[in-house]
Structure formats: C-alpha cells, structure tokens
Amino acid sequence: MIKFTFRKLMNDLHLWLGLGSGIILFLVCFSGTLLTFEDEIKELFIEEMVVKSNGNGKKSISNLMQNLEKEGIVNSVTISYHEHEPYQFSVKTDPNQRRGNTYLVNPYTGVYQQKQKSSLDGFFMTMFRMHRWLLLDSKIGRPIVGVATLIFLFLSISGLYLWFPKKLKWKNFKSGFKVKFSANWKRINHDLHNTLGFYACVYLVIMTLTGLCWSFEWYRDASSAVLGTKVFGSRGGGPKFESQLSDTIKGLSLEEIMKISNSELNYEGTTSLSFVSTEKRVYSIAKSNASSLSPVTSDKLILDRDGTVLNKELFSDKPLNVQIASLIKPIHTGTIFGWFSKTIYFITCLIATSLPITGTLIWWNKLQKKRKKKCNKSPLKMVS
Question: Could you write out the DSSP letters of every residue in 307-341?
Fold first, then answer.
C-alpha cells in the first residue's frame, strides 16, 4: 500500500489542477509572450519621421502649437531628450474624444503628421483581449482568467516544492539544474518541465501576484491593505490644483515654463507638458530621468501660469510602499527596467507557455507506462 504523504498530496494537486487549467493557462501565457514586445514590434511596421536640423534652430512650442490648432484642441506635448526625435503633440480632433490623436512634429520645420496606426494594432488588441478575458465578455472572461491565475500561482509554488529532491543532498540537486539533451525525448520533456519551471518560478510568482490586481477587486483591496496604500490609486485621483492668479494676469510663455521645469528637474530626460484648458489654468509636467534604472518612473511638477511651483513630486522621495503600488503595471508587464526586464519576461513567458504542454506529456507518458505494465502482466498458468 502506497503511503499518502504531503508530497503526494502536492503532486496530485499539481497534476490535476494543471491538467484542468492547462488550455486557459496556455492561451493566457502565449498571448502574454507576444504582448511583451508589442510596442517594439508595432514600431517596425510604422514609417518613422526623420528629424534633421535645418540650421535655423528649433521653433518655439507656441509656434508649433499654432500650426496644430487647425486640427483641433492641443492637450499636451512630449519632448524627447534625443535631439533628432520629433515632438509628440496630443490633439483632440473631436471635443468628445477621451484621448487625443498623436501628431508627430518636426521641431525645426513645423511639418507635422498624424502618428500612423500599425497594421498589427488589431492583432495585438486580440492578444490583449485573450490575455485579459479569453476573447469573452469581460464580466465572464475576467473571473475565469483570475481563477486560472490563482491556480497558476499554486502550480508555481507547488512546482518549486516538488523540484526539491526527497533527500536534500547536492548530488540529488544537480539533475534539477540542467536538461539532459542526450537522453530520450521523454526524459528531455521531463527536464524541460522540471528545470525550466524552476528557473522561471520567481518571475511567474511576480507575474501572477501582480496580474491578479486586474482580476479581482477583493484581491486589489487586500493588496492595498498589505502595502498600506491604494493600488491603482493614482488613476484620476490625487489633489487638484488651481491657478492662484486672476484672469487678467498674463502667464509666462511655454518656453519659460519649460525653463523653470528644467531648472526644478535638473537632469536629462523626456518631458511631457500638459495644458489644462480651464479658467484656473495650470501646467502639469512629468519628466523621466534618462539615467534612471527604470524608464517608467517620472517626477512631476504643477506650475502656475507665472511659473510658481504649486506642487513638486519626486518619485525617489515617495515611500517604498507607494513606489511599489504605483509600479504594479510595469512590474507585471516587464517594462520596469526596459529592454533588460522585457527580455527576461519574454523568456519566462515562453517557458510558462510550454509548461502546460510538457506537463501534459509527462502525465500521458506515465499513463501509457501504467497501461503497458498491466498489459504485460502474465496470466496465471493452470496447473495440470
């Protein structure tokens, strides 16, 4: 009689939960793999605007804005720290638009063009809907993906537990660190599942823990309680600032506002300047440090029309828990450290996509082995 142990329980749960959720996890991980380099892939199919100096220097932001006002309401401008990158203006061509269209502008000539849509936009939107909702209605698909993600979290942790040998000796550990490609395909398949799953485990746990924030409100609230700050709390939240100046006082030019911004945030980086079209107009500025380890963090300024600093928010000054909460999305998608983290996440997602396949093959091979043993049992011979 086989003794039922905790390890046997973990093995059975790992097996049957993996088989039950395999197809869903395959689709979610496969789409996540493709989404890792979505922006970079889409850029390959878009013709870039070439920006070269004409010897006359760059035109003022105000001048460039005036040219664009014939297209609609100009909301913001993003200026790269690279000299030969076009300015990106957000323009509402329809007052009912939630977000404006992006226009690329040559700062030397004022020539502009609407940013092209990639021919792959539709494909990646399909992959996004598959990753989040399995191409179903969000009310149906979101909880299904959420439950599958919870199962994947358990599979990652239980898989790590099962990776450890029963006897904790170094010679027993060595086989778990490598794939024996000289063996037969069944052993290779087992090693691919066991070894690659081990190397990917930490990143898979991070992906699942952060991904659940989009699936369940209760999980998001629990995460907020653990971190001590609201997860996704910055969306439309935060204090509102209004100009302290009367309408009769003329404000500074946009160039002067940018000078003050660069003085307050004295480093090289990409700057986004938003124009708030209200009676109490203020300028909202976000700037990312080009030398920062993470390209997705930014410092923020709120300036009055006369350049008075109404608020200054440095990312490095925020408490650690607030920083983590604000970085849930880049931590989940792998954009937090740019190409470095994206490459790691891409490889991890590829491994995650393969795990349901290799795991199913391990189960199938064991099943076939059991059947073969039964068939090979010799019948009792009758004694004459």
Answer: S-EEEEE-GGGS-HHHHHHHTHHHHHHTGGGTHHH
